[in-house]
Amino acid sequence: MNQANIMAQMRKMQQEMTKAQEDLANTVVSGxxxxxxxxxxxxxxxxxxxVKIAREAIDPEDPETLEDLIVVACNDALKKADEAAQSRMxxxxxGLRIPGLS
Length: 102
Fold this sequence. Notes:
Elements: H1 3-25, E1 28-33, E2 38-43, E3 48-53, H2 63-93
Antiparallel strand pairs: 1-2, 2-3
C-alpha cells in the first residue's frame, strides 16, 4: 500500500469519526433509578438534556434519598452514553484503540 492510499484512508476515517461524533452528540440515552421514578436523559457526548422526577420521589422530610436517586440515574445514563459511544466509534475505527476517543 502506498503513502497516498494510506493518507486517503486516514482522511476517510477522520471524516467518518467526525460524523460519528456528530451523531453521538445528537443521540440521547436515559438513565433510571427506582424503576423510572427518577430519569436523566443525556447525550452521548455527556450533556444533560432532561431530569424527570416522579412526585412520589419528592419527600421534603428526606431529600437525601432523592439526591441519591438522581446520582444513580445520572451514573446509569453516563454509563449507557459511554457504551453507545464506544460501540459507535468502534464501528468507525474497526476496533482499533485510538487514545482520546471514546
